[in-house]
Amino acid sequence: MQEEKNVIISVKNLSKNYSTLAVLKDINLEVRKGEVIAIIGPSGSGKSTMLRCMNALETISGGEIYYKGEPISTRKKYTKLREEVGMVFQHFNLFSHMTVLENVMYAPVKVKKRNKGTVYMEAMDILEVVGLAEKKDVYPEMLSGGQKQRVAIARALAMQPEVLLFDEPTSALDPEMVGEVLSVMKNLAKTGMTMLVVTHEMGFAREVADRVVFMDEGYIMEEGSPEDIFEHTQNDRVKAFLSKML
Ligand code: ADP
Ligand code: MG
Predict the structure, then answer these.
(1) Residues 107-118, mean pLDDT to the nearest whole number
(2) Ligand 1 atom nearest residue 218's Cα
(3) Centre of ligand 1 from the C-alpha of residue 23, in Å
(4) 23 CB within 6 A, ligand 1
């Protein structure tokens, strides 16, 4: 029972179709508070779709997703859910007409209607954490890809989320900028943030994740500790995928 209490997101028999195409098939996954889950697998296996279902950016075709015990498909509004289950995308999606600080402060002030002075102090603290305090008055076009992604993470954090979903946060970056973003994410994991991270960075998955989920053709084919997946898998699909990633 105690264990059940720690489950934040519970995915039960989830399926998702795009017309006749079955993209997710009988997905079951439990996410516990403070856990870091790496989601790996070939392109087209349904990783992004699964994440997007978790904060209702996609409707689901079957099964259910529970957030803190409550089914999300029966909610009337998704605003609150998306405040609590934040998302960081591959292509940053920053507001180009706003400065770094305005990007970070926008949603807490406009959506959550929080006090601007308080949000400012928090935003500056968060920008300090991601190493961008001195860029606060700069517009996104003046930033490198790695800096943009760190702003996107800061913006997600400013909403004080319970869970953060990352969809290939470093895939659009030049190689030399991958490290600075992974390092911010690693520090975030250490603070106890609950994180689901779709990634091709096997080193990160191995080092930072508590659990690794391997998806293939719409199924969760294997799930286990990094050691289970990277060292002891008996699954040929997992082996073939990992050998290509090295
Ligand atoms: P991954 O993130 O693992 O690469 P996706 O979740 O993006 O996989 O996609 C899984 C499958 O769903 C792919 O075959 C993709 O072409 C298909 N798909 C994704 N989004 C849509 C959409 N909006 N309409 C139709 N098919 C889609
Ligand atoms: Mg994807």
Answers:
(1) 97
(2) 10
(3) 7
(4) yes
> Minimal CA–CA distance to 108: which of 92, 125, 91?
125
The whole-model pTM stands at 0.96
Ligand nearest to the CA of 17: 1
Within the chain, what is the greatest distance between any pair of CA atoms? 55
**Amino acid symbol at 180:** E
> Which residue blocks in 79-195 are alpha helix, DSSP H?
79-84, 100-110, 116-129, 145-157, 175-190
Measuring CA to CA, which residue among 190, 200, 199, 169 is closest to residue 86? 169
The chain-wide mean pLDDT, for the chain, equals 96
Tell me how far the alpha carbon of residue 245 lies from the centroid of ligand 1, in angstroms.
21
Tens of pLDDT, residue by residue over 141-177, are: 999 999 999 999 999 999 999 999 999 999 999 999 9
